[in-house]
Amino acid sequence: MNKINCSFSLDILPKRSTRNSELISNSDGIGKDGKLSDTPKVYLGDLLNSKEFQKSKAKLPIPFGLTAENKVIVEDLFWMVDILIGGLTGTGKTTLINSIIASLIFAKRPDQLKFVIID
Questions:
Q1: Both 77 and 108 in a single domain?
Q2: Does residue 103 surpass a pLDDT of 60?
Q3: What mean pLDDT, rounded, does the chain reach?
Q4: Strands 72-76 and 61-66, how do they pair?
Q5: Of 15, 58, 59, 75, whose Cβ has the fewest other Cβ atoms within 10 Å?
Q6: Cβ 103 vs Cβ 62: under 8 Å
Q7: Looking at the structure, do residues 100 and 49 belong to the same domain, yes or no?
Q8: Whether residue 2 has pLDDT greater than 50
Q9: Neighbouring C-beta atoms of residue 34, cutoff 10 Å
Q10: Is residue 102 part of a domain?
Q11: Residue 83 is part of which domain span?
């Protein structure tokens, strides 16, 4: 990897970062990686009871979170051919899978939904 000489500061993360951030560089750009300790919690029940999720026309609706404007992001699992869920230990992969299953059960009747889970 080539070294990047920058005359400007890359201090773009707030000072409340809980771990050392590291510089990331690739051919598309440069940035800093870090985890914020005081990110707001988003509860699945709030997403499932939102008007965006309730009025969604998706065949298999999944709420993915909130935008910066506090609008619920709802995506359709039907159009997602493959999903790769990856991350470090303790970052919420299992919670995401459980939330996807719970949202599908919440949105559909038993006669509308069948599961095949392969691990």
A1: yes
A2: yes
A3: 77
A4: antiparallel
A5: 15
A6: yes
A7: yes
A8: no
A9: 16
A10: yes
A11: 44-112
- pTM given for the model: 0.63
Please report where in the chains the tokens 């392969």 appear, as a residue. Answer: 118
For 41-69, the pLDDT digits (tens) are 889 999 999 999 999 999 999 998 898 88
The DSSP secondary-structure symbol of 111 reads G
Give the Cα separation of 53 and 73 in Å (integer).
Answer: 8
How many angstroms separate the CA atoms of 44 and 50, rounded?
10
DSSP E strands in the chain: the ranges are 22-25, 30-33, 61-66, 72-76
Check pLDDT > 50 for residue 22. Answer: yes
> What pairs with residue 17 in β-bridges?
36
SS3 sequence of the chain: CCCCCCCCCCCCCCCCECCCCEEEECCCCEEEECCECCCCCCCHHHHHCCHHHHCCCCCCEEEEEECCCCCEEEEEHHHCCCCCCCCCCCCCHHHHHHHHHHHHHHHCCHHHCCCCCCC
